[in-house]
Amino acid sequence: MAMHRPITTAARLSSVAGLSMLLSVAAAAGECPKDKVLEKPRSIESKGGVGVTPTTLGLIHLKDWRGVGDLYLRTRLLTIAPGGIVPTHDHADRPALVYVVSGEIIEHSTFCDVPVLWKTGELSREFGVGYGHWWENKSDKTVILTSSDVVDKETIDLDKPHDNM
Questions:
Q1: Is residue 130 part of a domain?
Q2: Confidence of residue 154 (pLDDT cuts 50, 70, 90)
Q3: Fewer CB atoms inside 10 Å of the end CB: C or N, the chain?
Q4: Is residue 119 part of a domain?
Q5: What pTM was estimated for this model as a whole?
Q6: CATH number at residue 44
């Protein structure tokens, strides 16, 4: 008869640590090659949005939380059709995390000298003075991204839910 041993707290922590390391390695795969990272931002094309459907999944009003002010934490689902373009925008004062749920998408950034291919399971960290970019879906498949960012009242899309503000 086989005996099953309970999973210890140390084993759980070890598993979580291993998974965290695996995810951090996977997230690094879509980053700009080290020899192509620019110290000063470059000019990039100004592109308008094409074939992008944003859907706000959730919104939290951060007012009065740790002195943040009148800001919101927003999470959206972005569906980018084949040939679609997420328009040129900047992240000088809007930190964001973008996760590639499915598909492959190309980023054109002010701080990378070459386009960067992002694939399913990768995470883009977007924030900083001079940080701007646009994305394009050159594939024949729809790309799905989630985007979580901190925004002010003027930046919130009209598709936001109204029940949790």
A1: yes
A2: confident
A3: N
A4: yes
A5: 0.76
A6: 2.60.120.10
